Every structure is written in C-alpha cells, then in structure tokens.
Amino acid sequence: MQFTTNEDSNEELIWSLILNNLPSNLLTEASASTSSFYRTEDGIECSVRKKNGDLIANCYSESDRMGKRRWTIDLK
Q1: Can you give the pLDDT at residue 44?
Q2: Which residue, 36, 34, 37, 38, is CA-closest to 50?
Q3: Domain ranges of the chain
Q4: Which stretches of the chain score pLDDT less than 50?
C-alpha cells in the first residue's frame, strides 16, 4: 500500500493517512502510544504496533523528487 504526502507533512497527518490505508481489521488494533516515528538517512519511517507492542506494519518514505514523499506500508 502506498500514499503520497508533502515533504513537510507533520507526524499527525502522516499517522492519520497510515490509519486510513490499513485494512479495517488492523485499524482497530493500531495504537499511537506504542507505535513510533524515527528518522533514517533516507527519510522518516514508522513502526505501527498493537497495544501489546506486536508489530503490525513498517512504513517508510522516500522522496519522489517533486517535493513530495511516497510512503509505503509493509504489513507484517
């Protein structure tokens, strides 16, 4: 699954777009308090986790060279 955001989008907006792209059965299990955003050399990534800490998905972004970031959601 993929979506695109502006280069300067904040984590709140990105989190809501991640949730909008999760399948409905995983949407209710995703927890903002156990999930995390972190910076890498390539950009921003996010680990989406359940309330118990189990990993639901890894999300990573890359520049599309047009001022936007393409996010990919890799379900586990």
Answers
A1: 87
A2: 34
A3: 2-75
A4: none
